Amino acid sequence: MTSHLHIWPQMSLTVDQTARISAVLEDPESGRRDFWFRVPLEHFSSVTDLADPFVTATIFSAMRCEADLRIHGVVSRSLLRNLEEFQTAWHSWRPDHYHIVDVIPDQEVEGRTQTPGEAVIAFSGGLDSCFSVWRHTKGDCGRLKRPLKAALMVHGFDIPLHESDVFSIAAGNSRTIVQSVGLDFIPMACTFRELGDDWEDAHGAALASCLSLFSKRFSTGLIAGSHVYNALRFPWGSNPLTDPMLSSDSFSIVYDAAGASRLQKAKGVSEWQEAMRLLRVCWQGDHKDRNCGNCLRCIATALCFAAMGVHPPTCLGVPSLEEGIRVLQTLPVKPVAVARLEEILVAAKEVGIEATWVGALEACVHRKKAQNRRNPNTLRYKTLASIRRVLGQDLCHKIATCVRH
């Protein structure tokens, strides 16, 4: 007997200058539970009447539980069509984890096909999203430029919902950054993380869900790219292949700036005073409203700026590049991150930087490569990746199962 994950959209409620847009979810595994978005009342007029955001938010849960998604509301037909291809991609990548399910609404509508209108971007205050904001407001991205009007920051993603004071500080900094280039700032909250999906797989759908909530005003939602075309990672939750499959005819999801490396992004953002003062790239520290200065992300971002001839922002919290590299020596660094560190090293050498940190980084990269070569988990990863390229995805699942057992 086929199981179902039911979505029952509820009447929106307004309390204390906020609007709560919610649905009751019901499935055999978890029973009944609430799922909600909370937005400032001043932005409630931009919220869609369709159930599209709920569908996008729960598609991974349905695939994971192998439960057909039953929506007791109205959904865009074009989104349903795109989600069929989206499911095919994720089932191909992780057939042991995600299953193709039916998505069945009470009513399908064509939806209005919009001419390109205003755009909104998912904004964290990090280097990727700051660069995307900068290039669409002050930079030069040619015909790719979008009429960006607002930045959306979500409480409940990297900052847990119970840390409201922490989010308030981080959101205040983000507001200062985006308002300095004339954008509206929209803080919101969402219970997506409570669904229990793998964040590495599902974060693109989470971002798309929150962006599409505002499709009554905007026609495009931008997701700042985290990987470049020559170093794409699959499977990964946000990517230029499947992010657009979370679109409808009336609201397009765009994976932005996939042609720009983090080095190029650092160079671009260096021209933006507010971003350089308030950049927030870290979510690993005890205080999630600021950078810890001791993790791979903080240190590598500081090195990106330095390799571009720019003094790293003090907000990154890295006491010195030499000290940061000494910390890196003590951290486990996966091969993909070692490759990024090597790119930074090459860039620094190409422009003739002769500071002591360059030699220290070179020694660190050599050491991490040697450590990864001796690491059986790394060797297993490389072996499976090679087999996948030669034999294809179908055999990869079987090989991965054999290796695990």
Describe it for me?
- This protein has about 400 residues and is α/β, with parallel strands linked by helices.
- The chain has three domains: about 5-110, no CATH class; about 120-255, Rossmann fold (3-Layer(aba) Sandwich), CATH 3.40.50; about 260-375, no CATH class.
- The chain contains 13 helices and eleven strands.
- It has helices at about 50-65, 75-95, 125-135, 165-180, 200-210, 260-270, 275-280, 295-305, 320-330, 335-350, 355-375, 375-390, 395-405, and strands at about 5-10, 15, 20-25, 30-40, 70-75, 105-110, 120, 150-155, 185-190, 220-225, 250-255.
- Strands 1, 2, 3, 4, 5, 6, 7, 8, 9, 10 and 11 form an eleven-stranded mixed β-sheet that branches.
- Strand 7, helix 3 (about 125-135) and strand 8 (about 150-155) form a beta-alpha-beta unit.
- Helix 9 runs parallel beside helix 11.
- The longest helix is centred in the C-terminal third of the chain and has 19 residues, at about 355-375.
- The chain starts with a strand and ends with a helix.
- The relative contact order is 0.10.
- Mean pLDDT is about 90; it is low at about 380-395 and about 395-405.
Count of domain modules: 3
**How does the helix and strand content classify structurally?**
alpha/beta
Rough shape?
globular
Task: Please provide the ordered H/E string of secondary-structure elements.
Answer: EEEEHEHEEHEHEHEEHHHHHHHH
Helix content: 40-55%
Per CATH, the architecture of the largest domain is 3-Layer(aba) Sandwich
Number of helices: 13
What fraction of the residues are assigned to beta strands by DSSP?
A: 15-25%
Look at the structure and give the mean pLDDT: 92
For this structure, the CATH topology of the largest domain is Rossmann fold
Over all CA atoms, what is the radius of gyration? 22 Å
Q: What is the first-to-last residue Cα distance?
A: 30 Å
